[in-house]
C-alpha cells in the first residue's frame, strides 16, 4: 500500500526537479505516441527539442526562439501573480487580442503621419486595452461574486468575434482590394516593432518580456505586494488577518495580467504578425498557462519554461514540414507536459511511503 | 431584414436541439461538483467525445454505437483527471485546464482524415399522437431520441441525488469530505465514479454536436460549449431542475442569434455570434447567489 504523507514544507529539491522530470516524461510518452503515428520517435524528438538550436539551419531558427518565447513569457509572468494568489485569469488569449486591437487601432489612426511618439502611444494603448479587458472579470468578481475563470474565458470568445469584426470592418485596409485584414504595420515605420539588431529576433517585445521578468522578481521578493500575493495563496485566512484587501488583490492581479497580455498582443501585431487578421491569435494566451506552471510561477522559471515551450512551437513546425507530423500532435505534447508536471508535483508536496498496513 | 422569415414554431423546436449538448455536459458536471470536485475539463472531454463518437459512428454506420463510444471516450479522459486529482492530489483548477488543452490536441489528432465527412443520419422520432398535436407537437415531440434521453438523465440525476441513499452519500462527500470519511464512506471511490459519470455525459454532449447538430467533424467544434455548461451549473445553483431552464435559455439565445443571422439583420454576423457568451456572463452576474457544495475544489487527503 502506497501512503502519501504531507510534507511540512514543499520539497525544494523536487520543486526544481519536477519540471525537468515532466519534460523528460513528455519526451518518452510523446516518443511512444509518435511511434504509434508511424514516425521514428528518436528523430521526431530530436527535431522538436534539439534541431532548432543545434542543426545546421539553426541560425534561422534561433531568432524564432525569441519571437515565440517573448509573448509566452510576458503573458505567463502576468498570470503567475494571480495564480499564486488563487485568482484564475485564464482569458489571457482575449486580453492578448484586445491589446493587439487597441495598439493597432492607435497606430492606424495616425497613418500615414510619421512621429516617434506613435509607437510609445501604441504600447500604452495595448497595455490599457488588455488591462481593461482583464479588469472586466475582476470587477464582476469583486462586485457580484461571479467566477473569474468562466467570465475571463467567455471574454476570449467575445474578443475573437470582435477581432473578426475589426479585421473585416473598421480596421480593414482600405487599399487591401477587399481582402480582410488591416494595413501592414511593419511597413509603417513609426508604428513598426522592428528587430533591434537585424537577424537576431530581438524586438521590443523581447525587451519588454525581460523587463517584466526582472520587475516581477523584484516585486515578489522585495515588495510588500509580492509578499501579500504569496501570503494570499499560501494562507488565505492569515492574509485576511494581516489586512490584505482581497478586492484590491483581485483587481491588481487581473489588471496586471491583462496589461502584460495586452502588451504581448500589441508587440506581436506591430512586429512578427504585422497586421490585424481574423486568425491573428494562435493560442499564446493558453500556452502561457502551461508556461506559468512549468516555470513554477517564478519569474526566472517562467523565462526558462517559455524557452522550452517556444522550442516545441519551432521544433513542432520543423517536424511538421520535414517529417509530416500533424500540427495537433504538438498541442497534444504541450497538454501532456502540463499533465506530467501536475502528476510529478505530488512528490514536491508529499512524501511517498510504502506501508504494510491495509488502509481502512 | 425580414423578421417574418423567422418561424416561431421552428425556432422553439430548434431551441431544444441547441440546448441538448450543453444540457448533457452540464448534468454530468453537476454530479461531479455535488461530489465536491471541480472539473474544468468539460470542454476537453466534450470534444474528445465528439470525435470518438464520430469515428465510431462513421466506422459502424450506427449513431447509437457512436454515442456509446463517445460516452466511453469521455469517461476514459475524465479518468486521467480523476487519477491526478484524487490519487496524486493535484490542483483541480490546473488539472482541469490541462484536461481541456490535452483534449483539444487529442481530438484534433484523432480527427485527421475525418474532415468533410458527413455523419450517418440520426432520424427524428415522430412520437405518435403527441407529435400530432398542433404547435406543441412539432416543438416538443418531434425530435431525435437524444433530446429525450438528455431530459431522462436529468430526471434520473434529480431522483438519485434527492431520493436515494447513494445520492445522500455523494452529497455528503461533496459538502464535507472529512466528515464523510469519518463516517466510513469512500470519498475517493465516490468521487471517481462521479468524475467518470461527468466525463461520459460530456462525451455524449460532444457527440450530439458532431453527430446530430452539425453533423460533421471540425477541429475545435465545441467552441466553448463546455465552458458554457460549467456556467450553467453555477446558474442552476447545483440543482438539476434549474439546469434544464438554464440550458434552454442558452439554447434560445443561440437559436435566436442564428435565426437573426439568417434573416439578415443589419448587425454584422461577428457581433451576433458574441451573444451566447455575453448572455453567459450576464447570467453569471445575475445568478451568483447560489451556494456551492462545501468541499468544492478542495483536495481530500485523509489524515491517518
TrEMBL record, chain A:
Its main location: membrane. The chain crosses the membrane at residues 16-37, 65-83, 95-111, 117-136, 148-168, 202-220, 249-267, 273-294, 301-319, 325-347. Coiled coil: none annotated. It is found in: Cell membrane. Keywords: Cell membrane, Membrane, Transmembrane, Transmembrane helix. The keyword NADP does not apply. InterPro entries: ABC_transp_permease. GO terms for molecular function: transmembrane transporter activity. It is a multi-pass membrane protein. This is Nucleoside ABC transporter membrane protein. It comes from the Bacteria. GO terms for cellular component: plasma membrane.
From TrEMBL, chain B:
It holds the Pfam family BPD_transp_2. GO terms for cellular component: plasma membrane. InterPro entries: ABC_BtuC-like, ABC_transp_permease. Coiled coil: none annotated. It is a multi-pass membrane protein. It comes from the Bacteria. It is found in: Cell membrane. This is Nucleoside ABC transporter membrane protein. It comes from Loktanella salsilacus. The lineage of its organism: Bacteria, Pseudomonadati, Pseudomonadota, Alphaproteobacteria, Rhodobacterales.
